[in-house]
Design goal:
Layout (H helix, E strand, L loop, with lengths): L1 H24 L5 H22 L7 H28 L3
Helix pairs in contact: 1-2, 1-3, 2-3
Length: about 90
């Protein structure tokens, strides 16, 4: 059950980062962009849940770390995709 909470925290952190990025942009909501953020959130949640499967008991600090790291996954993913698009005219 602990791994579920870690996965949900990581995915939730990524979703929150995506929503905050959209609110900060002032642009209209783009389902395609949000969909890619949601996909990164699922990947982050899965990776963190698998990673924590090899550790000891999960505490509240682990859940907070997973949420912050999930947000970082979304932010870095957006930056990487933006850089690729900018350099390749996409």
């Amino acid at each position: 059950m602990d791994l579920l909470w870690v996965g949900l925290a990581a995915a939730g952190g990524a979703i929150v980062a995506a929503i905050m990025g959209w609110l900060d942009s002032g642009l209209d909501f783009d389902v395609r962009k949000f969909g890619s953020s949601a996909l990164r959130a699922l990947v982050a949640g899965g990776v963190f849940a698998i990673g924590y499967a090899f550790t000891g008991p999960v505490g509240i600090s682990d859940i907070i770390i997973a949420a912050v790291a999930g947000a970082g996954v979304d932010v870095l993913g957006n930056r990487a995709i933006g850089a690729i698009r900018q350099n390749h005219g996409g």
